Amino acid sequence: MRMTYAVLRRRRLKRKTANVVQEYSDGWNQYRDYLRKAKTLEDWLRVPGVEDQPGFFNVEGRLSYQSFDHIGFYRRTLLEALRRHFTGISSITEYGCGVGRNLLFLKSRFPQVAMYGYELCAPGVEIARAASEKFGLDCCFSQLDYLHGHSSQYVFPDSDIGFTMFSLEQIPKESQAALRNILHHVRFGSLHIEPVPENYPLSLRGLVGRLDHWKVDYLTGFDKSVRRLGLKDVIVEPVCSAHNPLMFPSLYILNKAQSSLFPNDEK
Ligand SMILES: C[S@@+](CC[C@H](N)C(=O)[O-])C[C@H]1O[C@@H](n2cnc3c(N)ncnc32)[C@H](O)[C@@H]1O
Q1: Which of 6, 42, 60, 229 has the smallest number of CB atoms closer than 10 Å to its CB?
Q2: How far apart are CA 88 and CA 239, in angstroms?
Q3: Is 2-265 a CATH 3.40.50.150 domain?
């Protein structure tokens, strides 16, 4: 009930790239200290005393107060989806990689796969590079706005697949343009774990979640944008838990094979 009132009273935000840069540069700067204190990769991948605290989460569709390892849950979801949908790949790029922890996690599981990460905010890139060096996991990071960036800023080779995790959510209206940019730089396809309100359940929490995401100006019309890309295969799966009790994320698997839209870059 309290969450519903809080959402109703919240003022509507207008999300612009400058706000995202400000919010995440500030947020990621705090991770310099966490990285300095991290003794092991595990400490870095889920910061003790910070990211293991109890709170309200969406756990398997239920509102729950507990210490839920949502970070580990999302990474396992990603890993499992990679294994099911894209076997035998040799390179992966994350778009909007933050401080690069998903890629370090993947590199620790797939040492032979090349890992590239693009991130909008300079502090994210700096910290990701420092962490890669500290833990001896060879991942490459570079600054890029994958919505507005010039083609010369895509400094890494095209990769087999790309993915986003809670990054397209920051691009409310132009997610289709962002997806086109990603798909132009991958050979086989992409994976996206994102909050897509049109897939939310028609329960009270699902409806309040839709209102909440509209008020904070998150991703809208994503499903329609994806369908209009002309891809042969679009698979959508629910992600049953989330860090935000009003969020019911979806996993989108986009397969470029025989796409009518990207005929020239099939390799
Ligand atoms: C919620 S964080 C998620 C970070 C990372 N994917 C993870 O799971 O830890 C969203 C990230 O997307 C980045 N981002 C948002 N819009 C972007 C854009 N247009 N280009 C590159 N990165 C972007 C933000 O700066 C932020 O670091």
Answers
A1: 60
A2: 24
A3: yes
